[in-house]
Amino acid sequence: MIVLPEFDPVAWRIGPLALRWYGLAYAAGFAAAWFWGRARARQAWRGMSAPQLDDLLTWLILGLVLGGRLGYVLFYNLPYYWEHPEDIIKVWHGGMAFHGGVVGVALVMWLFARRHALSLFTVADFLVPLVPPGLFLGRLANFVNGELWGRATDVPWAMVFPHPASGGLPRHPSQLYEAGLEGLVLGGLLWWYSRVSRPRGRVTGLFLAGYGVARFLVEFTRQPDAQLGFVAFDWLSMGQVLSLPMVLFGGWLLLRRVPEDH
Questions:
Q1: Among 87, 187, 198, 256, which is least packed, fewest CB within 10 Å?
Q2: Residues that bind a 1,2-diacyl-sn-glycero-3-phospho-(1'-sn-glycerol), according to the entry (predicted)?
Q3: Half-sphere exposure in the Cβ direction for 103 (13 Å, CA)
């Protein structure tokens, strides 16, 4: 059993301004996506240029933040925000949903593709391999913040998290499981699979199915959100329910027949 020390969620303070680990993870994830994306843009067969990437990333930040926040409000805590709508904008209090962020990013990509006369999957196939570093850093930030901990367990690597709501029980470090699967394993698979040209939509399919499977499995070790508990069949969490459509759609993209010119 490992007792996790209580880390300060604020990485740096400059006067009244506070830079939190989670915000730092977002910034570093976007920086990594920009640097790697610029390198990928030098390969013309990928279908996007460096200036297009620069333009798109600016809007993706907005889509991710708005989608992630609204996803959390709608999927995870709607009764509270229905009573306290003024708190919706208080993102500094926490509360972002990955699945909502996916919807927000997908909408931005669709609008961008229409504006530049590109296929949606040309844009998505270019971008999704850039996502796992941000997922990895985000889950590490969850771990440092001592949030989104796992279920109680007696495995040798169980950790006691400092937050009072964890009950002082040894728990799975589910944030690290997610960092490993969503960040390292999925990132490695996407890098390997996308190193050569693939039929349109295949890389996107691998990302959706891979993330969905990883999240679905890790959720068996993650403590369900206190305000929700299990939402289906008394054993499926909201994260698992929302991941199933990703797995199904991603699997369809991987298995569908694509015309030769695609």
A1: 256
A2: 139
A3: 16
Strand partners, 19: 12
Annotated binding residues, written as ranges, equal 139
User: How far apart are alpha carbons 104 and 84 in whole angstroms?
Assistant: 23
Tokens 């593709």 found at: 113
Residue showing tokens 């998290």: 161
Q: Report which secondary-structure segment, H or E, holds 131.
A: none
Residue 247: CB partners within 8 Å, gap ≥ 6?
208, 209, 212, 213, 216
Q: Phi, psi (5° rounding) for residue 230?
A: -85, 140
Instruction: Identify the pLDDT of residue 92.
Output: 67
String of b and e for 116-132 (b: at least 16 CB within 10 Å)?
A: eebebbbbbbbbbbbbb
Helix (H) or strand (E) holding 238: helix 238-255
Instruction: Quote the distance between the C-alpha of residue 94 and its chain's center.
Output: 15
Q: List the domain boundaries for the chain.
A: 2-255
Residue 6 and residue 161 in contact, taking contact as beta carbons nearer than 8 Å: no
